[in-house]
Amino acid sequence: MSLIRHHIDGREAGAAERTGPVFDPATGVQQHEVAFASTAEVEQAIAAASAALPGWRATGLVKRADVFFRLRQLLVERQDELAAIITSQHGKVLSDAKGEISRGIENIEFAAGLVHLLKGEHSEQVARGVDVHSVKQPVGVVGCITPFNFPVMVPLWMVSSAIACGNTVVLKPSEKDPGASVFLARLFEEAGLPAGVLNVVHGDKVAVDAILDSPVMKAVSFVGSTPIAKSIYERASSNGKRVQALGGAKNHMVVMPDADLDSAADAAVSAAYGSAGERCMAVSVLVAVGDVADPLIERVASRMAALKIGAGTDASSEMGPLITREHRDKVASYVTGAAAEGATVVVDGTQAEFDGDGFFIGTSLIDHVRPGMKVYEDEIFGPVLSVVRVGTYEEAVELVNANRFANGVAVFTRDGRTARQFEFDIEVGMVGVNVPIPVPIGAFSFGGWKDSLFGDSHIYGPESIHFYTRSKVVTTRWPNPSESQINLGFPSNH
Ligand code: NAD
């Protein structure tokens, strides 16, 4: 069985002293071992990033940008290869894997504009003969820790901007589907990135802690579940680092009585069951306002019956398996437990049968869900859609705003005034109006509120340039020596 190793200073590295299994979720068969880094191996990667920093920082901006233009081209040319790696280790269908690559390419396109993005500001003559300008300098070595569900897009959210800003990186991808990140690191180098600028180490808490505790590491970007995001934020910030730690979600889709119910049902099914619900922006709660619940549920259930679930490599599959057997069983437990909590299981995906030993589960729809039930409170991260019935717009807003998660939300309506008011009232980081998965384009930034993000910067886009740089402000004067004098007063510009 092949071993997936670390990528440090442009080379494969890492012994197989501690390893973890990498499965093909469609067959349930282990296909690789992945090396788990020791503290010493992470330190080796940090040392490589540190050694590469002065050279990369000094590289001209136009030359830096060239890497991103070439990388974009290489990714387009080799997307089939990369999508195959994603599907074989994550399980998502190939078209979805390509969608993820295409969204990751947006981050590369954004980073390719670095000559513009890194421009500082200049004020001439703030006092007689005095000018002020600001520059954005890299923070240094950056740690990036990523989840299993987007093994290409989420690393690109982070590393594209971090590298564009002149930093060097140690990336610790999910140990469940680590192959794509090594492929990405090699592609970056093929595009001209010097060895040591992007290093990849695999592993578990040991590797993560070595990143969080290293005095060399200046900033940490994390995406994953809320409990881990919170602990990463606390540990890294108490170690004096900049941290952005994006957590889990429970995304609501509010359907108003005036909405087009066929479009809303199409959107709900796509956003709840796409990628088997393993998206942080998946819709997991349908909030049915007024009398829309019954006709909406009927439409959603009839669409669910037609969904094709199967191996991601089969072009006819619309939904693949879950990431692990344990996760599949956990998702199933929410569905089987829902009736005992007083909810109504309209479609029970745990009863679906599949050939073989893959980590498949059918799609579930649960009605009469209420706050307080586990099926409502927890992030399930599987193909389970709950319906909460409310009487009014105000009740819908109150429900969403009371939730501890606040990543994404959507409203479906044909009334512009309702949509505008919703945008104003709702306490969630990303809002869709008749758009169920409102992941912002790469030129904007991505981030939730409350328990969906710890830290004050959103990820990728303009906020990432702020996160990955330190600004320096320079005040300049070229005095005529004859005007020089001693003045112990605080310098005033008035
Ligand atoms: P996870 O939190 O289990 O793992 C994320 C990363 O943290 C992995 O690299 C993992 O190896 C590491 N990790 C796990 N346990 C750790 C520990 N105890 N100490 C230190 N590091 C640890 O998340 P996951 O299951 O890989 O991904 C799914 C989660 O990610 C979901 O909750 C989902 O909502 C969230 N997610 C959020 C966003 C977002 O933008 N907010 C995007 C994608 C995924």
TrEMBL record:
Residues 18-474 form the Aldehyde dehydrogenase domain. The keyword Oxidoreductase applies. GO terms for molecular function: methylmalonate-semialdehyde dehydrogenase (acylating, NAD) activity. Its EC number is 1.2.1.27. It comes from the Bacteria. It is an enzyme of class 1 (oxidoreductase). One of its GO terms (biological process) is thymine catabolic process. Gene3D superfamilies: Aldehyde Dehydrogenase, Chain A, domain 1, Aldehyde Dehydrogenase, Chain A, domain 2. Transmembrane segments: none annotated. InterPro entries: Ald_DH/histidinol_DH, Ald_DH_C, Ald_DH_CS_CYS, Ald_DH_N, Aldehyde_DH_dom, MeMal-semiAld_DH. Keywords: NAD, Oxidoreductase. PROSITE patterns: ALDEHYDE_DEHYDR_CYS. NCBIfam families: MMSDH. This is methylmalonate-semialdehyde dehydrogenase (CoA acylating).
